[in-house]
Amino acid sequence: MFELIGSVFILVGAVFLFSAGLGLLRMPDAYTRIQAGTKASTLGNMLVLVGLAFYHPSWTFRLILLIYFVLVTNPVSSHALSRAAWLIRTPMTSSTVVDALADEDEPSTREAKS
Asked: What highest taxon heads this organism's lineage (predicted)?
């Protein structure tokens, strides 16, 4: 019974990981690719790790630590990548309406690096 539950978690996690890869291919610019890849891969990795915990109950504590690590590092790294892309003027897609960072004090830093 636990193997079936673990298999379902792993399968759903694999679907989310597949959608993350598909999002990287289908999204129009770097910012939306980063967002699509990060959200889906974070959830996909967590679901796979939960599924592994059902298969190997003795690994549960280690897998919880890995889930915590994924929850902390994926959003932080995607934020850093997006910020760096913005600072080097990576173009946004033409359908982007608002650049929220352009209204902050950052443009002076951005112009100084030009």
From this structure: Bacteria
As a whole number of angstroms, the distance between CA 64 and CA 109 comes to 40
Residue type, 112: A
pLDDT, one tens digit per residue, over 61-80 is 999 999 999 999 999 999 99
pTM exceeds 0.90: no
Q: Which token pair is 95?
A: 């359908």
- Cα 8–68–50 angle (5° rounding)? 15
Minimal CA–CA distance to 37: which of 10, 18, 14? 18
Q: How many domains does the chain have?
A: 1
Domain span at residue 85?
Answer: 2-112
